[in-house]
Amino acid sequence: MRTRPDEVDIDAALVGRLVAGRFPRRAGLPVERLRSSGTENAMFRLGPDPVVRLPRYPGAVEGVAHEQRWLPRLGPLLPLSRDAPTREAIAHLTGRIDTAAVADLWEEALGVPEHTGAPVCAHR
């Protein structure tokens, strides 16, 4: 469902073609749109673990560029690697927030079951 008039049509087939063109080793992995994609980015599960996130409209590209500029600068200052699984990263805030509730809400919003396997880096 479109949320803006300038929103780009992004579907699983397009994501599959983009992934195959940029990451040939991942070509052919199943692509499934996540139930909650937000208003700026569309998110798709790629195979069993990684997530592909694409800007939904031209103005959202700047937000991704902003993250790419700042994450390398902020990463060394954070108490946990940005590549840590979500539940592990949230758990690091124990005592400051209700970590179990936040992790459960996050996973419910994404429609993702709790990950029990080895740590996975979804963004490089």
TrEMBL record:
Keyword Transferase: yes
Name this protein carries in UniProt: Aminoglycoside phosphotransferase (APT) family kinase protein
Source organism of this protein record: Streptomyces griseomycini
Protein keywords: Kinase, Transferase
MF (Gene Ontology): kinase activity
Source domain of life: Bacteria
Gene3D superfamilies cross-referenced by the UniProt entry: Phosphorylase Kinase, domain 1 (3.30.200.20)
